[in-house]
Amino acid sequence: MCETRSLMTRLRGHILCGAAALALGTAFQPAFADDGHYGGTLKLLGVSSEGTLDPQINYTARYWPLFIWTHDGLMAFKKVNGPESAEVVPDLAEDMPVLSNDGKTYTFKLRQGIKFSNGKDLTVDDVVASFQRIFKISSPTSGSFYNGIVGADKCLAEAATCTLEGGIVADAATNTITINLVAPDAEFLYKLAVPHASIVPADTVMKDAGNEPIPGTGSYMFESYDPNASLIMVRNPHFQEWSKEAQPKGYVDRIEYTFGGTEEAAVNAILNGQADWMYEPVPTDRLAELSVSNPDQLRVSPLVAWWYAPMNVNIAPFNSLEARQALNYAVDRDALVSIFGGPALATPVCTILPPDMPGHVDRCDYTADPGELWSAPDMDKALALVEASGTKGQKVTVVTDDSVTSRGVGTYLQTVLSDLGYDATVQSISGDIQFTYIQNTNNNVQISVTQWYQDYPAPSNFLNVLFGCDSFTPGSDSSVNMSGICDKGLDDRMKAAMVLGSTDPEAALKEWGDIDYDMMKLAPAVPMFTPKDVDLISTRVGNYEFTSQFHWLVGTAWVQ
Amino acid sequence: MLIVVATLLAPVYAKHVAGTDPFRSGLSAKIKIDGKPTPVMQQSTEGLGLGVTPIGPTWGPQYMLGADGQGRDVAARMLYGGRNSLLIAGASTLICLFCAAIIGIAAGYSGGMVDGVLSNLIDMIWAFPVYLLAISLSIVMIGKSFALGPFEISSGSLIVPILIIGLVYVPYVARPIRGRVMAINQSEFVMAARGLGIRRWKILLRHILPNVSTTLIVFAPMLMALNIVTESSLSFLSVGVQPPNASWGTILQDGQTLLYSRPWVSLAPGLAIMVTVLLLNLFGDVLRDVLDPKSARGR
Known about the structure:
heterodimer; A: D-Maltodextrin-Binding Protein, domain 2; 5-stranded mixed sheet; 28% helix; B: mainly alpha; two-stranded antiparallel sheet; 6 strands; 7% strand; peptide transmembrane transporter activity (chain A); Peptide ABC transporter substrate-binding protein (chain A); SBP_5_dom (chain A); Peptide/Ni-bd (chain A)
């Protein structure tokens, strides 16, 4: 029952729930039930590595699921299977924070006796230095997640001299940390639970650590990292389990992540028992066969994500509302779902908030039969809108990355745009640069194909981040509002909803649902589908657990 | 010749035989097999029901070689793609031979500083691995439209791969042409012509060019074979022909992800490339034997 409540309710009720759970857990926990599963080596495969090993900088879905096992924040998302994993629990903090000053001040008591993997004790100074480090190294989310901390504005302006004065206050005597915010932020605890808020030793280098592992407090530590070959994780010798929910002791002794090869080779290696899991999606031409021959090795899990086509509202032809709406009416979401592997792997969507995101409401106007769900494209209406827009015949380039699915979606959109009367082409560029390329207004991207996965389970992480005025920075590679839309009315409503979330979460979620609907009236993007995650695992992997936040929990799996 | 004719007839095949548009996504398309409507993209219904597989070869008029991941007729795309592959290879061969002939003859015949500058330029381009140079140029040129004099070339235009492939092989032809010109320039009949006071440009036109032209003709089919492979490689790497256009290279790339379930999508363009290149090389050998009897006797 605890997991169904809102965040603020949970904050108040957590102590009671936690105490009850602790009592029950202690009373009924079978002694040494899973002891036989400890040990062994988990072998993971990936086509490539994905950048720095610095948890406060790396912003990739490949490494975040690893950082949660090597580093901790003050808070953590529960490392459990299913929807409960969206809850935040105290991690390095002893308990949930005490809120004061109208929700603008959070006071945490730091756990004692915790050591980093280099043997040093964790202190409140490490916490302060870690928050300063977020700004000093220009962490990708320093300006979006942590800009509400008092003093953050100065840190963002002058990173090198960042002190967060008045924002983070440590008291070594009471072992407490106080964080002061400029305004209440209902999502702040989520932001403390992502890897960018990892607590690292105070003497950590104040720049991107690159390939050098940074000591952490997690149950594992990085032993070695060669981006061209492998990443090895071993047990942290100084780790003592303090919270099974936040940082459980992992089952395997060693995790070997090998880079290189192809997806096909990875599938064969897993089927032959030479590897246990692959990061990349299973190639679509193997899925049908595997779902018959090896169904026990496939795990399909829902994701809080969407594939969408942002349309640049500032340049032709999509500076015309009718043109944007026309494409929304014309796109056959079922066809796009088939590119992704069929209805078992993706669901058509009409809204910005994915179905499993709080605040989502089933509503669809851009379909032949408007109602709750998408039914079929309405080509007649789309053609009429294009005619009314006066944009017919204009040149449109769809920019995709070079992955199979993205190119497939781009090719499909090119066909639809041609059917609507545009002179459409597809430009496929390397996945390494496509995401930043489509953000930069200097590249004059008209329409692109991209995806967004939740950072944390809050509607603002989709609506405000992807379509808020603050996310639009012309001429920058970090302008994630790729549509370039800035509707002052909706932007004010989003800001108000974020504040409302700290006092009346239910009303805030309802407002987010309405904002979603109103934003789609402006059609800044074509929502296409929400994908599902498919993992192929070896036969020896047991206790597979999946969270929508960090996907497969590698540490809770066993191999013997 | 048969391949060229077949590719020229691609629109006729696509429109009147296959009845499909090979450049449109056919994800929701259906065809009749044994009188029953069958979806082109077939949803798996067994096991966990994961995956959608395009229809395989029907060996009939529609979807003879099956469909690709977009539900498009592979056979029709093969013919259209072949036309583009041959067009790019042919045009780039002509560009390459033209540029190489001018540079090689100018360097070999003029000598001195002109030769020094041109030879160093050739060496500089030669220093780049050909594929690295081609990929680099492609990435720059396919990103945006650009102007070539009064003409604007769009990013997806076939002119882009034609120009790139045509230019990267210039040093490989210009260098032997230069050597050949230098050799001819020292031959007795040229010396005699020079001794008779015949003007330089007349010697060039009457004695040098006819002797070099046979070398260029022998180069042509072999260079075209090489250009087909280069175009396919660039398109396979997404830096050659851009969608919605097709070439054998792009079809090969489309088929890469269907290798396990629908191998014909890759096999068909692969075989087409292999056969065409083989025939062009054989043709080149025959041409060389005809135009250069000394070399034929020597073997």
